[in-house]
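Please check this today:
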Amino acid sequence: MPDDKKVNLDDLLNQYGGDEGSSMFSAPPKEGDAAKINALISRAMRLLSQRDHGEMELRKKLLTPPVAFSKPNYSKPAKPKAQKSSLSFSKEWQEEEVQQKAARLPPEEISPEHVQSVIDYCYQHNWLDDAKFADRYISGRSRKGYGAQRIRQELQQKGVDKELISTAFEESEVDWCALARDIAVRKFGEPLPTEWKEKSKVLRYMLYRGFFQEEIQSIYRDFDD
């Protein structure tokens, strides 16, 4: 990230009215922009600790308000008493109304400006890097038996820049033809079927896995004994 885009957390929180003692790890207050920034940073750290994310994917998740978790009540209902005062009934009714009203409230909108500040902060601390993300994604998906065509489409859907994707594939050490052969043998056994009906099943399966026609043809052409 260029120096002029570097984000200082203290300056960032102070800009939105944060106190000097604010901490990104502390429980966020209910009000105030500094608390919202604080909560977004904690949320971004949690998401990135679970798995790699590209910038667009992380941005979408941060812009989506989290769903409030309501703990289910497994306790047995209390046995009704013979009589209850009208005051007790009134109190229970009011509490139930408050809970139902809170559940109906729409989630608070998340500011794109806040999210952008958190994205910049993540870049500054090397928590986000789309180039490295593309490298690791290609490596991980190829190990699971997926071809370059499918992996490229998935990276594009995640919003990774096309040039970064192309560079990552150029620098990848995956032998796609050898991988295609290995996946086909694992699925259909060796020797691979040569009758057209069975061979077409191999073709359809390998296309589904994301391999190119040339790579599929090579599993017969280049690996014949």
Observations:
- The two ends are 52 Å apart (CA to CA).
- Residues 6 and 124 are 6 Å apart (CA to CA).
- DSSP finds eleven helices and no strands in the chain.
